[in-house]
Amino acid sequence: MACSGCSTGRGNHTTPGNIPAGCNDNGSCGTGGCNKLNVFDWLANMALPDGQKEFDMVEVRFKNSRKEFFKNVNNLSLGVGEVVAVEGTPGHDIGVVSATGELVRIQMKKKNVKADSEETKKLYRKAKPADVDKWREAQALETQAMYSARTMALTLGLQMKISDVEYQGDKTKAIFYYTAEERVDFRELIKVMADKFKIRIEMKQIGARQEAARLGGIGSCGRELCCSTWLNDFRSVSTAAARYQQLSLNPLKLAGQCGKLKCCLNYELDSYMDALKDFPQTDNIKLQSKKGRAFHQKTDIFRRIIWYSYEGEGDVFIPIPVERVKEIMAMNVAGEFPEELVVVVKDKVAPVKTPDYENVVGQDSLTRFDRNKKQGGQNKNRPANQNRKPDQNRNQNQNRNPNQNKTLQNKPVTENKTPNPNPNTKQNTANPNPNQNRNNNNPNRNKNNRNPNQRNNPNRNKNNPNNKPPNNNPPAA
Fold first, then answer.
1. How many CB atoms neighbour CB 212 within 10 A?
2. Which of 18, 125, 373, 447 is within CB 3.0–4.6 Å of 11 for a Cys-Cys bond?
3. What is the pLDDT of residue 131?
4. CB count in 10 Å sphere of residue 177
5. How crowded is residue 453: how many other Cβ atoms within 10 Å of its Cβ?
6. Could you give the 3-state DSSP secondary structure of residue 378?
7. What are the CA-CA distances from residue 444 to residues 149, 297, 310, 432 (Å)?
8. Could you tell me if 29 and 2 are in contact, meaning their C-beta atoms sit under 8 angstroms apart?
9. What pLDDT does 456 receive?
10. Cα-atom radius of gyration of the chain, to the nearest Å?
């Protein structure tokens, strides 16, 4: 489907031939591309009853949002997206089929168009290559013609805005769409334009909403304009719709691109009006309490809260539920005045629920992976054996004296020739220290009497002979 049928000109920036980029159906898919007022044929997969003929009316789309219905007099087999030649006024025009079959019957009934009317035009044929080339040439002249027409209107001093120009497919007529607040006498303008463009000129006045629908754009919500994509029934929008929805009457926020109130103000109006049926009348009605009189500030409809302020305290808003407002109004009618507008209810303290498990391994601690190490790299929370390096655990027996690992039964006891360093003290040779004997079979061996500094000494080296302990074995008998 050709994207040049709208005023965005996206087809000139996509692929050759004005085909949408990435369209595997060569522009003839059912999505409509960037066209306006696209229609989804939800009756396409439904077969007609036996003996029922297909509806002979076809909906054809032209530039922007202009659509018309034509009679398929030659019973051509047409599909959505095909370029056809239709009857014009005068001559012929070129358009794109937008809907066929029973969906067209529903659209005509919705727009109150009769198929047997005398004004119904005919569909001639499918467009030929020559017709399409001439149509492309006519579309290329539209932008320059619009600028020239605006210059002519300013020169003649006409209070009008020319927003769009549409050439007919055979280049014999051009339609100029304009908006104006008052009646404009453009007879002199038509003479000047006809003399310059050498074609038939037709002026058509449209409203501000129709202008926005033809040109398109992005709304404040971030989506395409409703009038450009699907909305074709423009209803009047009043400021009462904004008042019912408690919106600020700021024309900059409530106005759309057309300069009028946004059409979407009517979408949720019924929901707000249904919710307001249960609300009390707050206009010119003040709530009386023993503390003073309070006046209405604002209302939150869906939360069912009304804000009041005491006289002299306009900057302090007091939220009051709707039920409480009704209760106070009923009390004031009866001559009673409450102490406060809002009844303060103390919140009950919920009991602390104790866990039904015990934190055995410390899985609930956030710092369970932090290690507080002692001097020497030993953790407080772990045994000494777990802080050793693997090499230290594996080579523990290699760092010991080999004479200490041998038993007394397998090796004869030799005389200890080590001199006594202290001459005043006698060396006990008869009773050696049992802790010095590294025999694993010695029952007097005590593991707790080991010197911890010897195991954790960083300067300890099995190859250093100075680090070996002295041989204190008793001499042979």
1. 24
2. 18
3. 92
4. 23
5. 9
6. coil
7. 120, 94, 94, 12
8. no
9. 52
10. 49
Angle among Cα 55, 60, 65 to the nearest 5 degrees reads: 135
Give start and end residues of each alpha helix (H) in 266-397: 269-275, 322-333, 390-394
- Whether the CB-CB separation of 280 and 329 falls below 8 Å is answered with yes
The pairing of beta strand 67-71 with beta strand 121-126? parallel
The backbone torsions φ and ψ at residue 393, rounded to the nearest 5 degrees and listed phi first, read -70, -35
pLDDT at 444 over 80: no
Nearest to 62 by CA among 221, 154, 168, 199: 168
Half-sphere exposure for 164 (CA within 13 Å, toward CB): 22
Number of neighbours of residue 188 by Cβ within 10 angstroms: 11
Preceding amide of 90 cis, omega within 30: yes
Nearest-angstrom CA–CA distance, 4 and 339: 72
Laid out side by side, the sheet with 161-167 consists of 161-167, 173-179, 200-205
**Phi and psi at residue 145, to the nearest 5°:** -65, -35
Average pLDDT over residues 260-268: 92
Q: Report the pLDDT value the prediction gives residue 123, as an integer from 0 to 100.
A: 92
* Chain centroid offset of residue 147 CA: 40
Please give the residue that has the higher pLDDT: either 347 or 457: 347
447, 440 contact by CB (below 8 A)? no
- For residue 260, is pLDDT > 60? yes
pTM of the model: 0.59
Local structure of residue 15 (DSSP, 8 states): B
Q: How many CA atoms within 13 Å lie on the side-chain side of 114?
A: 4
- Per residue in 141-188, pLDDT (tens digit) is 999 999 999 999 999 999 999 999 999 998 899 999 999 988 999 899
What is the rounded distance in angstroms from the CA atom of residue 42 to the CA atom of residue 335? 64
Q: Measured between alpha carbons, how far is 336 from 320 in angstroms, rounded to an integer?
A: 18
Q: Quickly state the pLDDT bin for 231 (edges 50, 70, 90).
A: confident
User: Predicted confidence band at 416 (pLDDT cuts at 50, 70, 90)?
Assistant: very low
* Distance between CA atoms of residues 255 and 250, nearest Å: 8
CB 27 within 8 A of CB 58: no
